[in-house]
Write a structure and sequence with these properties.
This protein has about 425 residues and is α/β, with parallel strands linked by helices. It contains 17 helices and 12 strands.
């Protein structure tokens, strides 16, 4: 799998990744700072073998046993209490005495651990003197290699090390949690995933724009406008292979930008000199009349109820070549209206008065209205909003459209990620 896929997931779930790291670091730092710091002071002595050119095995055994004996003396409670009294340490003072034997040497290291660095140093040196004197009682010479010095920093707890380890553990937990959440999230976040699920030709990729700029004629960006011009070119090029007089736009679920897509596409078609009629067939949640700021007292529902004639329902817009048939105001069940045979005749009549009729249909999964419209149109375009569309809903919509023998010519992805179109546009505009 491409490494960029993993990077995209981690970036998308960055809050999930970062949160465990922050929590682990702060919690570890807090706990570490509550622990009493301990200081470690050490003193080293040497018990050499007898001088001479050769040393027998018995001498080595004796030295080894002597060092262990001295270590036992140092660690006894009586010795520690005696040293405590010598240095004037209170009984409540915490002291830990350890003895180490560096490998392949004649050395013995006395280690004292205490919350007080000065106390640890004094006790270590007192134990060093005690051990040297004890060795003399055993008629062996002991040499002081290094006396204990006051430690500058505690050896425990190690705040930087603990925080670093906590950060690593938190990062591992965050990454694992991010991939776990991603596995259970059914939202389609990338164009690649959408294409895999829908398995439809990609007609257009519409880049994300601020809400106030979603309509091209208001303040659409160059990249936004160019994306719809590409979509227009793609649809117009299909006229050579199949008739595309009546094109229905739908989505798997509400809120995917279907009506906005229809409005912007109609605008760029009209700007290119094409005659376009937009028909709002969403009789339950109509939107087109608000987009073009038109009244909705006479529209498709009124025509289907035979309250007005088909041509009377067509309204002009401020844009030459772009006309609109709103949803209308008739208070009738949409199931009854859209199921009539008159709908096909009506759409064909509108197709005779325009180069292309764009039908804004309801979301496919929400109601059955779109399924009733499919037999009356030439082609279907599925609008999918990246980071909003659900995998199962998109898949189910495509399967049901296939079951209706709908001619699905492709899909349009809203809020699509991709190349920076503005850079190319600026380059060509500068020439």
């Amino acid at each position: 799998m491409d490494i960029r896929i993993y990077i995209d997931i981690l970036w998308r779930r960055k809050l999930i990744v970062i949160t465990p790291v922050i929590v682990a670091v702060l919690l570890t730092a807090f706990i570490t700072l509550q622990i009493t710091p301990l200081y470690r002071a050490s003193a080293t002595l040497r018990v050499p073998t007898s001088a001479g050119s050769t040393v027998d095995y018995g001498e080595y055994v004796y030295i080894s046993r002597l060092l262990n004996t001295l270590a036992q003396y140092v660690r006894t409670r009586s010795t520690i209490e005696e040293v405590r009294q010598r240095v004037g340490a209170p009984e409540a003072a915490e002291l830990t005495v350890e003895v180490e034997f560096p490998a392949n040497t004649e050395l013995m290291r006395i280690v004292v651990i205490s919350p007080s660095p000065n106390l640890a140093t004094v006790v270590a040196n007192e134990l060093l003197d005690f051990t040297v004197n004890r060795a003399r009682l055993e008629r062996r010479r002991a040499e002081i290699v290094s006396a204990a010095t006051v430690p500058e920093s505690p050896f425990s707890p190690r705040l930087p090390l603990n925080v670093a380890l906590a950060g690593i553990v938190g990062l591992m937990a965050g990454v694992g949690l991010a991939f776990l959440v991603e596995n259970f999230d059914r939202t389609l976040y990338t164009t690649r995933h959408i294409r895999q699920v829908a398995n439809l030709p990609l007609l257009g990729k519409i880049p994300p724009v601020p809400r106030k700029q979603r309509y091209i004629w208001q303040s659409g960006t160059s990249a936004h406008s160019e994306a719809f011009r590409r979509l227009r070119t793609r649809l117009m090029s299909m006229n050579g292979t199949r008739p595309l007089s009546i094109v229905l736009f739908t989505s798997a679920q509400p809120g995917e930008g279907k009506s906005t897509t229809v409005a912007n596409l109609a605008y760029v078609l009209a700007r290119a000199g094409q005659s376009v009629i937009v028909v709002d067939s969403d009789l339950r949640l109509p939107t087109i009349h608000r987009i073009f700021n038109l009244p909705n007292d006479c529209g498709l529902s009124n025509v289907l109820c035979e309250e007005v004639g088909p041509l009377e329902a067509i309204q002009e817009t401020p844009f030459p070549g772009l006309r609109v048939v709103t949803s209308g105001s008739a208070d009738v069940d949409p199931d009854q209206l859209l199921h009539t045979k008159r709908l096909r005749t009506l759409l064909e009549m509108y197709a005779q008065h325009a180069k292309m009729v764009l039908v804004d249909a309801p979301a496919f999964i929400a109601v059955t209205d779109t399924a009733m419209l499919v037999p009356h149109i030439d082609a279907v375009v599925l609008v999918i909003n990246r980071s909003h569309a659900q995998r199962e809903l998109v898949k189910s919509t495509c399967e049901q459209l296939a079951g209706l023998n709908a001619t699905v010519v492709g899909m349009v992805i809203n809020r699509a990620e991709g190349e920076n179109v503005n850079e190319y546009i600026k380059y060509y505009q500068s020439k």
